[in-house]
Amino acid sequence: MMLAINSVVVLATVVAMEGFAWLVHRYIMHGPIGWGWHKSHHEHTDGLFEVNDLYAVVFTVLAGVLLTFGIAGVWPLRQVGIGLMIYGILYFIVHDGLVHQRWPFNYMPRSGYLRRLVRAHQLHHAVHGRDGAVSFGFLYAPNIDHLKALLKRNRSALSRRQRQDRSGALKA
């Protein structure tokens, strides 16, 4: 029975991490606090690593701390740490490997969910800068038509805001 409960905690952690990652990506990485690291992910880099990879280091350390306390007997931290580690592995395979082609070989799905996931993240990167982006999840991809409409609205709003900022600056 305990194995089933522990398995549910691990699975629930993996699922919950997508929501948590969405929030971190949207409000920290694209916010004033975390843009300094995340900006490198939205720019061309020649090297194997980018500053944004420090987020993976932070979450790896967090998973290690949870596993350590969990092994020391604090339930359910070991299971949460395992779930976080599994999410990190999935992120590495899907986001870094499939979406951004950081593998030594290239594979691009032609259809299905993985193709939708790649397209959703391409739409995320269609905006240069931290504002106006869409699709902040890493393993969940919303409907592409919905994302395109949202991106169009975001671009219009950004354009209006920039025009207002310029006209305000001219008046001052």
Would you write up a description of this structure?
There is one protein chain. Helix 1 crosses helix 4, helix 3 packs antiparallel against helix 4 and helix 5 (112-124) runs parallel beside helix 6. The chain is globular and about 65 Å long. It has helices spanning 2-29, 35-38, 54-71, 77-99, 112-124, 144-171. The chain has one domain. The longest helix has 28 residues, at 2-29. With 172 residues, the chain is an all-alpha fold. The model has no long low-confidence stretch (mean pLDDT 94). The protein has 6 helices and no strands. The N and C termini lie far apart (70 Å).
Whole-angstrom Rg = 19 Å
Q: What percent of residues are in strands? A: under 5%
Tally of distinct domains: 1
Order of helices and strands: HHHHHH
Number of helices: 6
Let me know the average pLDDT: 94
Low-confidence stretches: none
Q: Largest sheet at a glance?
A: none
Helix content bin: 55-70%
Q: Tell the overall outline.
A: globular
Query: Which structural category do the helix and sheet elements fall into?
Result: mainly alpha
Our measurement of the CA-to-CA distance between the termini, rounded to an integer number of angstroms, reads 70 Å
In total, how many beta strands? 0
Task: From the structure above, extract its key features.
172 residues, mainly alpha
Task: Summarize the topology.
Elements: H1 2-29, H2 35-38, H3 54-71, H4 77-99, H5 112-124, H6 144-171
Short summary of the structure?
The protein has 172 residues and is mainly alpha-helical.
